[in-house]
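Lab intake sheet, docking and co-folding queue.

SAMPLE TYPE: protein with bound small molecule
LIGAND NAME: pyridoxal-5'-phosphate
LIGAND FORMAT: SMILES
REQUESTED OUTPUT: full 3D complex as structure tokens
PRIORITY: normal
SUBMITTED BY: R.K., bench team

The fields below were copied directly from the construct record.
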Amino acid sequence: MYTRRAFAARIGFAAAAARLMPEMAYAQRAAVKVGDLPKDMVWLNANENPLGPPQVSIAAMQQVLPTSGRYHYQEFADIYAAIAKSEDLTPEQIVTGCGSSEVLHTTVDMFTSPTRPLISVTPAYELPIEVARALGRPVVLSKLRDDYTADVRKLAEEADKARGGLIYLCNPNNPTSAMTTADDVKWLVNNLPSNTMLMVDEAYIHFGESPQLQTALPYVRQGKDVIVARTYSKIYGMAGLRVGFAAAKPEIIARLAPLRINVVSIVSARAVVAALGDQQTMLPERKASLAHTRRELCAWLRERNVKFIEPHANFIMIDTGRSAREFINTMPKMGVAPGRPFPPLDNMLRVSIGTDAEMAKFRDVFWKVYKG
Ligand SMILES: Cc1ncc(COP(=O)(O)O)c(C=O)c1O
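RESULT FIELD (auto-filled):
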């Protein structure tokens, strides 16, 4: 038996903090002080979807609320089946979680060990890296290529050197919004060293327009050692509802499932199932509208010779040409909250794509700070 102190030391306070920490919690580390916040703040700091949940999901939630005194456990087989079917998978090929944060967490816990590192790039989404560190697992981070993409050969090389590990590839990557091409993902899958699992985090995959950006789900269907993490927080606009899932071959899911905390909230689950019924029209519409706003912002930046990384997600990394801290500290006081710092890309400002009106305000405030 552990004493409380020994137990706390074992899991570490960092582990408690890292547990289930989605983008918003990280965002709060930005230099925004609650007392200073303008009431009409434009939030472009957490890659959320300003459209929120679709109407069908809101109606489904309103309908289920009065019965939320029950667990509704008996409904979950159908809920899992609906989620799996929406991606041409079987229920044995998925496990749901409280956002994709939960499945990222359990994957790191299951597939890293004191001798089996988490291998990724820097910068990448911090959650899996922080979970690994909190659990005392080694972390190996490789530099991005000059074009800010992940060097898949280097990732495989590191896994080989460690005689196995968990490779975390976020595609498109957060915070760079750069993609790993389908050819590179294919190379990595076909060249995974032994004892190595590949986790592809596709939180933002729906926002990409390039034909070279493709989901890794076919590798799951082929039974490869690949886990794909998906979330309803981004294009579906349900960040506060906390639903995501991992897709992998049944043997992998059988290892992850016992670590899951529980079923997700029935209110959230019903919202997801309702949205899936609307998926065929909703996803292309949302993607087109986001892409339009993103294109306008890119054109505006180009006209002003402001550099940025070509974006494939619902956010963009802008090269401010000097420390981005000045923008991160000043812009919130002017009514626009951009992303937090992302070392080692110290001159880069991550900005989520909001509505057209929000981006008009962003341009105004950004330009004032940029011009000094
Ligand atoms: C790349 C990436 N993966 C996963 C998540 C976790 O999101 P959620 O737990 O809301 O699914 C985020 C949050 O912003 C993210 O940026």
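REVIEWER NOTE: The chain has a mean pLDDT of 92.
SIGN-OFF: pending second check by T.M.
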